[in-house]
Amino acid sequence: MQGMKKIVLVVMVLVLAGAIYFAFKGNDDTDVAQFEAPITQPTGSYLTGMRDLQGKVVPMEEDKLVFLNVWATWCGPCNMEMPGIQSLYDKYKDNDKVAFYIVSDEDAATVNPFVERKGYQLPFYQYVGPYPSALDGNAIPRTYIIHKGEIVAQEVGASQWDRPEVHQLIEEKIAEI
C-alpha cells in the first residue's frame, strides 16, 4: 500500500510539472511567418473603453497599424518581453502611421509604480470589460499586430518583438497605409 501511494504521488508531481511547463512555455519561434494565420475581423479587432493611466478615455486608432500587447505586472513572461517592446516602440514612436497600446486589466495604482520603477516609456493603458472575441484569450502576454481591421500577426507567450522579421512586417504594412 505504501508503494502505491508513492507511485501515485510521483505521477501527480509529473503531471503537475508538465502542466506548469506548457502553461509558461510560450512560443519561442523567431520567424514572424510562424505566427498564427491572419484573422479577418473588420469590426472586432479594436478595443473601445480603454483608458490611459490618468483615467482619460482613449479610443484605439483604427486608421493606423496597431501593435497591441495585453500584459500584467505580475506576469514573468510579460516582463521578459517588455524590453523588446520598448525597443520596437522607440523605433516607431514618431511614425504617425503606427500606434502602440500596452494594455493591462490592472488599475493605474498597480501599473504606475511598476512603470516608474522599470523606466519604461511606453503608452500603457487600462482596459475594463470583455475583450472583443478576436482579442479575447485566457493567457498573457498576448500580442496582436492589426492592419486595416485584420490581425496580421498574433502571438501568445513572450516573444522578442524588436527582431528584424517584426520590423519587416511593420514596414510592409505601413507602406500600404
Any overview of this molecule?
About 16% of the residues have low confidence. The protein is built from 4 helices and 8 strands, in the order H-E-E-E-E-H-E-H-E-E-E-H. It has a single domain, classed as 3-Layer(aba) Sandwich (Glutaredoxin), CATH 3.40.30.10. The radius of gyration is 19 Å and the shape is globular. 36% of the residues lie in helices and 21% in strands. It is α+β, with helices and mostly antiparallel strands. Strands 1-8-7-4-5-6-2-3 form an 8-stranded mixed beta sheet, covered by helices on one side. It comes from Dyadobacter jejuensis. InterPro entries: Redoxin, Thioredoxin-like_sf, Thioredoxin_CS, Thioredoxin_domain, Thioredoxin_ResA/DsbE_sf. One of its GO terms (molecular function) is oxidoreductase activity.
Sheet having the most strands? 8 strands, mixed
Cα-atom Rg, whole angstroms? 19 Å
In CATH, the homologous superfamily goes by the name Glutaredoxin
Report the portion of residues in β strands. Answer: 15-25%
Q: CATH topology, what is it called?
A: Glutaredoxin
Strand order of the largest sheet: 1-8-7-4-5-6-2-3
- Span of the ends, CA to CA: 70 Å
Topology, pairings included?
Blueprint: H1 2-24, E1 39-40, E2 50-52, E3 57-58, E4 65-71, H2 76-92, E5 98-104, H3 108-118, E6 124-127, E7 142-147, E8 150-156, H4 164-175
Parallel strand pairs: 4-5, 5-6
Antiparallel strand pairs: 1-8, 2-3, 2-6, 4-7, 7-8
